[in-house]
Write a structure and sequence with these properties.
Helix content: 25-40%
Largest sheet: 5 strands, parallel
CATH architecture: 3-Layer(aba) Sandwich
Order of helices and strands: EHEHEEHEH
Strand content: 15-25%
Distance between the termini: 15 Å
Amino acid sequence: MSEEVKEILPEELEKDIENGSKYTVIDVREDEEVATGMVPGAKHIALQTIPDRLNELPKDNEYVMVCRSGRRSHNACMFLNERGYKTVNLKGGMLEWTGEKVF
């Protein structure tokens, strides 16, 4: 994965949320995936719809992008970063958030 994308560990994000998060969390998974659970307070914008929904993402916010394992959210970070957004990728995605290991 590219070095140009910052990452946050699930534990760090969880602590940040508990303390009144400075981040807006965006879950880029598909509808059926988010139905199984999301990071508390996350907004669902499926990856393929991001280009059409940029108007919902103010550039003065800082975003944590989330997917299942971290790959799609990494791509979302790269796309948004190229357009002047401030993003951070959730390392390991929901697999790490829920305590499962990514292999």
